[in-house]
Write a structure and sequence with these properties.
The complex is a heterodimer of chains A (146) and B (165).
Chain A: H1 11-19, H2 22-27, E1 29-34, E2 37-42, E3 49-51, E4 56-57, H3 59-78, E5 85-93, E6 102-111, E7 115-123, E8 132-139
Antiparallel strand pairs in A: 1-2, 2-6, 3-4, 5-8, 6-7, 7-8
Chain B: H1 14-18, H2 31-35, E1 39-44, E2 47-52, E3 59-61, E4 66-67, H3 69-87, E5 94-103, E6 113-122, E7 126-134, E8 141-151
Antiparallel strand pairs in B: 1-2, 2-6, 3-4, 5-8, 6-7, 7-8
The chains are: A alpha+beta (146), B alpha+beta (165).
C-alpha cells in the first residue's frame, strides 16, 4: 500500500505525534508500521461501548478511529507536522464492532495540492471482514487557506 | 423498498414512557456517551438535542485546543440514533448504515457543543435522519450530517429493553 517514493515518518515520530493528542490517548489509539504501511489499533476498553446489549462499540468511536487513521496516514506520508483539517467524511457501517481490539489502515486515493481524498477500513479478527469503511476529504496545510 | 413517510411529529416519544419519563436515563444505556460527558437537552417526537461540555481529554489538536472531529462524530451519531428512536412507535433495535459529516468550522475551545437531530423519513426497514452540531445557534453550524439507520436490524436481535425499576 505505500506509495512508491513517498516519504514516511519514523515509528517514533509517528507515535510521539499521537501521544500528543489527548483524545487519541483517551480512546486508546496506537499506530505502527506493518510491511511498510501504517496500521492503527484501537485497544478495547469498556468506555468505548455504544450498545451494551449487543454488545457493540459506539458508531461514533469507529468513525473517530477511521478519521484518525486517515489523518495519521496523511501525516506519515507527507512528513507534515501540521494536522490536516477534515472537510467531510462518510462512514459505512458493515458489521457491528464487537468488544475486542479494532485495526485500521488508510489509502490516500488522491493527494492534491490543497485537498486529499482518503479511504480507510477497519476490521477486527479478520482483515477480509471489515466492520466499517470511511472515505473523506482533508484540507492540507490549513494555515495557508487564507 | 416500501414507501417512506414523514414520521409523526406530534405527541410524546414512546421511549420516554419506556424510560418512565426520565429522558436522562437514555444515555445510561450508552456507556461511551457517558464517558465523553454527553447529556440530553431535549427529547421530542422524532427529534432530540444533545450537548457535550468542553473537556481537555477531547482535544484533537494540542496546538489550538480544538476538540477532535471524532467527538463531533460521536455526538452526531448519538443524536441521530436518538432521533430515530424518538420517531418509533414501538422500540426496535436500530443500527447505523451510513453517516456523512460535513465540517463547516472548527469548534471553539472551551465552549459546549450542541447537536440537534431530526428523523425526516421512515420506511418499514430504514430511517433517514439529519443533524447539526453548533455552539450558540444552529444557524452557525460546526458540522452537518445525514445518516440512514436500519430498523429491526438482525445483528441486534439480542437487544433488550432498558430495565425499569
Amino acid at each position: 500500500m505505500p506509495v512508491p517514493g513517498a516519504a514516511f515518518m519514523s515509528t517514533e515520530k509517528l507515535q510521539a505525534l499521537i501521544d500528543n493528542i489527548p483524545y487519541a490517548n483517551f480512546l486508546g489509539f496506537k499506530a505502527e508500521y506493518q510491511e511498510g504501511s501504517v496500521v492503527t489499533r484501537l485497544a478495547y476498553s469498556d468506555h468505548l461501548i455504544g450498545n451494551p446489549f449487543i454488545p457493540a462499540l459506539h458508531g461514533g468511536v469507529i468513525g473517530a478511529f477511521l478519521e484518525m487513521t486517515a489523518v495519521i496516514q496523511l501525516m506519515a506520508e507527507s512528513e507534515e507536522s501540521e494536522i490536516p483539517k477534515t472537510v467531510d467524511i462518510t462512514i459505512d457501517y458493515l458489521r457491528s464492532a464487537r468488544p475486542v481490539d479494532t485495526f485500521a489502515r488508510a489509502i490516500i486515493t488522491k493527494h492534491g495540492r490543497r485537498v486529499a481524498n482518503v479511504r480507510a477500513e477497519a476490521w477486527q479478527d479478520q482483515v477480509d471482514k471489515p466492520v466499517a469503511l470511511l472515505h473523506g476529504h482533508f484540507l492540507l496545510r490549513p494555515q495557508d487557506k487564507s | 423498498m416500501t414507501p417512506s413517510k414523514t414520521p409523526d411529529k406530534q405527541g410524546r416519544p414512546v421511549i420516554l414512557d419506556i424510560l418512565g419519563g426520565d429522558k436522562d436515563a437514555f444515555l445510561d444505556t450508552v456507556p461511551h456517551a457517558k464517558a465523553i460527558g454527553m447529556e440530553i437537552v431535549e427529547i421530542g417526537k422524532a427529534s432530540g438535542v444533545l450537548k457535550i461540555p468542553y473537556s481537555e481529554k477531547l482535544i484533537g489538536n494540542p496546538q489550538t485546543g480544538v476538540v477532535h472531529g471524532g467527538v463531533i462524530s460521536s455526538l452526531l451519531d448519538t443524536a441521530l440514533g436518538l432521533a430515530v428512536i424518538c420517531a418509533l412507535d414501538e422500540l426496535v433495535p436500530i443500527a447505523t448504515l451510513d453517516l456523512r459529516i460535513d465540517y463547516m468550522k472548527a469548534a471553539t475551545p472551551g465552549q459546549t457543543i450542541y447537536a440537534r437531530a431530526e428523523c425526516t423519513q421512515m420506511t418499514k426497514t430504514i430511517a433517514f435522519v439529519r443533524g447539526t452540531a453548533y455552539h450558540d445557534t444552529i444557524d452557525d453550524p460546526i458540522a452537518m450530517s445525514v445518516a440512514a439507520f436500519m430498523l429491526k436490524s438482525s445483528s441486534v436481535t439480542t437487544h433488550k429493553l432498558p430495565q425499569q425499576d
